Each structure stands twice: as C-alpha cells, then as structure tokens.
Amino acid sequence: MSDKPIIDWDSFQKARAELGMGFIRILGYFREDGAKSVAAIEAAMRAGDATALVIPAHTLKGEARQFGADALADLAENIETFARQCVEHRESPSEYLPEVVRLRPLFNETQTLFDAEINPLVERRGFGKRVLVANQGFGRI
Questions:
Q1: What would the pLDDT profile of 60-107 be if each residue is shown by its tens digit?
Q2: Confidence (pTM)
Q3: What b/e sequence results for 56-85 when a residue is b if at least 16 CB atoms lie within 10 Å of its CB, and e otherwise?
Q4: Is the C-alpha dihedral spanning 120, 106, 23, 4 positive or negative?
Q5: H-type helices in the chain, by residue range?
C-alpha cells in the first residue's frame, strides 16, 4: 500500500469549482457508473475474461481521476494495464485477483470520503479533520 492519500483534495476542489452547480449531480453519476464498473470488473475476473476487464477499468480510471480519487484511479489503471497485457499474450488474468479484490473496498472508502466532504452537516477545519456537529449555530442569536 502507498502512503499517498486516497483522495487528492486539491483535485477534488478543482473539479467542484469547475463543475459548479452540476458537481453533486455529476458526482452522483460517478457513484452509479463506478459501482457498475466495479461489478463488471468483478464479473470479468470471475469469468477469467481479460478482454472484459479492459473497458470498465479504463472507464473507472478516468472518472476517478476527474474527482481526485487517485488511489482508485491508480488501481483501476493497474488492472486495465494488466488486462491489456493478458489480452495481448492470450493469458488468464487470474493472477491479478488480489488487486481486483481490493477494488470494491477502495471504491466504497472513496465514496465515504466524498460523502463526508459534501455533507452540509460537517464542519470543516481543514481536509481530513472533520467534525460532525448537530446544528452549527443555525438560527442562534
């Protein structure tokens, strides 16, 4: 495992600024599409189909990178690259099973971090230092 953080928060904030009002909607698309990509990668691995690994891994890589989910993007890229090599050499992707097994937990952890960052009930005191607060002083004098 890398010491690199799961999310590059600077990239996340840049995407947030660039996407503006559409950010939450597009992040929701990433949640849905990412879950489909993870499921497709898992299914392809169960079937031992290297060719079927390539497109969902490539898609997940690009979408994750857009939101600064670099750890997820890096893992998806590794899976894609390995799958392409397997296709070229006509080999089974089975030796990459441990990497594919890491994918869903990392995707879920990434979503949890995104949810914490966009939650309006979280008081921000710098990235990685979030405190859930009950009312944040709303309506107080």
A1: 999 999 999 999 999 999 999 999 999 999 999 999 999 999 999 999
A2: 0.83
A3: bbbbbbebbbbbbbbbbbbbbbbbbebbbe
A4: positive
A5: 9-19, 23-47, 50-66, 70-89, 97-118
